[in-house]
């Protein structure tokens, strides 16, 4: 007996939602592969694990900061299995200025946004603490802003406060070399320059260590990798 019923109408809103949910991770993976290829073409993308091997364990990587490309460079330097669980910390006001920047940093890099202007009772470290509790690794730029000099600016207190709260998590210093010549502050067009990311020996906060002593020691650990 033939059915006389009619097919249920397709909800276009639901269909668009399903297509968007499917397309977004696919697009993110395609863009991820494209960026990896672009970074390797422009910079040579040399990752040098001088002080420690790449391990699938929770860590806090901290590096010098001279260009917006820093985020991409250190992300590209990590093996694929580490990129998925390692999240860079980025300024919300810059990286969410446009829909594309927001999508790129959230869908491809899975960054943690922090606000440079906030309410008096707002804890800027809260999203970082949540990520660490969830088992993620972090990429920090403790200077807090990009600089021009070959030497890092003084480190801000965030790295110390995280080390104090998570004393068991290894802190890995890293030096990003030459990236300021690829896209220095104020420029928008990248140029091909050989670059590298050198990862140093793990460090931990010492019992009773003063904040200023620790931050200077962390900065020195990054700077020591410059000429290796």
Set down the secondary structure blueprint.
Layout: H1 12-43, E1 46-49, E2 59-63, H2 69-77, H3 80-83, E3 86-91, H4 92-95, H5 99-108, E4 112-114, H6 126-133, E5 137-140, H7 158-165, E6 170-177, H8 179-182, E7 196-199, H9 211-223
Parallel strand pairs: 1-7, 2-5, 2-6, 3-4, 3-5
Antiparallel strand pairs: 6-7
- Strand and helix order: HEEHHEHHEHEHEHEH
Give the assembly state of these chains.
Answer: single chain
Q: Order of strands in the sheet with the most strands? A: 1-7-6-2-5-3-4
Q: CATH fold name, please? A: Glycerol-3-phosphate (1)-acyltransferase
Proportion of residues in extended strands: 5-15%
What is the CA-based Rg, rounded? 21 Å
Helix content: 40-55%
Find the structural class using helix and strand composition: alpha/beta
Number of domains: 1
Count every helix, treating DSSP H or I runs of 4 or more residues as helices: 9
Description:
With 228 residues, the protein is an alpha/beta fold. The chain is built from nine helices and seven strands. The chain has helices spanning 12-43, 69-77, 80-83, 92-95, 99-108, 126-133, 158-165, 179-182, 211-223; strands at residues 46-49, 59-63, 86-91, 112-114, 137-140, 170-177, 196-199. It is globular and about 50 Å long. It starts with 11 loop residues before the first helix and ends in a 5-residue tail after the last helix.
């Amino acid at each position: 007996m033939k059915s006389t019923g009619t097919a249920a109408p397709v909800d276009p809103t639901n269909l668009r939602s399903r297509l968007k949910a499917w397309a977004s991770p696919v697009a993110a993976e395609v863009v991820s592969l494209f960026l990896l290829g672009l970074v390797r073409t422009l910079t040579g993308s040399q990752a040098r694990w001088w002080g420690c091997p790449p391990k699938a364990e929770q860590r806090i990587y901290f590096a010098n900061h001279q260009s917006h490309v820093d985020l991409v460079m250190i992300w590209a330097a990590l093996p694929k299995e580490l990129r998925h669980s390692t999240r860079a910390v980025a300024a919300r006001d810059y990286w969410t200025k446009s829909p594309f920047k927001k999508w790129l940093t959230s869908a491809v890099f899975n960054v943690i946004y922090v606000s440079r202007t906030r309410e008096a009772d707002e804890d800027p470290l809260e999203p970082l603490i949540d990520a660490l509790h969830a088992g993620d690794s972090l990429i920090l730029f403790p200077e807090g802003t990009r600089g021009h000099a070959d030497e890092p600016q003084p480190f801000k207190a965030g790295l110390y406060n995280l080390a104090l709260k998570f004393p068991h998590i290894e802190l890995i210093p890293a030096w990003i070399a030459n990236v300021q010549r690829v896209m220095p502050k104020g420029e928008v067009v990248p140029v091909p320059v050989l670059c590298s990311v050198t990862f140093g020996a793990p460090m931990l906060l010492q019992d009773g260590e003063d904040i200023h002593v620790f931050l200077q020691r962390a900065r020195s650990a990054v700077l020591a990798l410059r000429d290796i």
